[in-house]
Amino acid sequence: MANIKSAKKRVLVAEAKTARNKAIKSKVKTVVKKVEASISAGDKAAAQAGLLVAISEIDKAASKGIYHKNTASRKVARLTKAVNKIA
Questions:
Q1: For 41-82, what is each residue's pLDDT tens digit?
Q2: CB–CB of 35/54 below 8 Å?
Q3: Could you tell me which InterPro entries the record lists for this protein (predicted)?
């Protein structure tokens, strides 16, 4: 454990940010899984509704620096493509 006061604070701040990042990534994964479940079930209406939620969550994560903007864009593009493939 760190002895210097500023180093102790950095440890606490890093733990807080790690927890925040983990929570947001988990939320993104959850909404993406819901969309993928709707796609595999063939429910286009639910998939499109879930897609809007997923895009919103992915964009929020990217704006906070949890995902790189290109990573977020790729995730959105792949999800959108999958939803549009449903007949």
A1: 999 999 999 999 999 999 999 999 999 999 999 999 999 999
A2: yes
A3: Ribosomal_bS20, Ribosomal_bS20_sf
**Which residue, chain included where needed, has tokens 């701040």?**
13
Report the predicted TM-score, pTM, of the whole model to 2 decimal places: 0.87
Question: Nearest CA to 46 among 58, 33, 59, 57?
Answer: 33
Sign for the pseudo-dihedral over CA of 30, 35, 40, 42: positive
3-state secondary structure at position 70: helix
Residue 1's pLDDT is 73
Burial of 36 (0-12, 13-18, 19+ CB in 10 A): middle
Domain ranges of the chain: 25-85
> Which amino acid is located at 38 in the chain?
S
